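USER: Please consider what follows.
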Amino acid sequence: MASIAELRAEAEQRFIDYPIDLDDGATVRLRNLLRLDDKGRTTAQALLGAINETNGADSDDMSRIGLQERAIRDFLLLVADKPDTLRAEVETWDLPLLLLVIEQYTETTQLPEAPSSAS
C-alpha cells in the first residue's frame, strides 16, 4: 500500500514544472497546467487557443503578432509560481524568446502517457 507522501512524491516527478532562471538571478517555476485550479486551467486553455490561432498568421499581420505576444506573456504569468517576480522581465522579452520559452515549457510539462490496461 502506498502512502500519500509517496504518491505525492511520484506526482511531483511525473507532472513536473518548468523552472526558469531570470536575468536578475531569481528562479520562477512555470507550473504544470494540472497544478492550476479550475479557473486557471480554463483561462490557460483560452490563452493557448489564442496562441495557436495566431501561429499561422501572416508575418505582415502585426496586430495578430501583437496578440500572440500578449497571449504568451499572459499565459506565462498565469502559470508562474511567482508572477510578480516574472512580470517586469517577461515584458522585455521579444517574440522569438517568448516562443522558445513556451515551446520548452510545453515539452517539459507534457502529460505522460497513460499506462496501458491489463485487459
Q: What stands out?
A: Residues 38-109 form one domain.
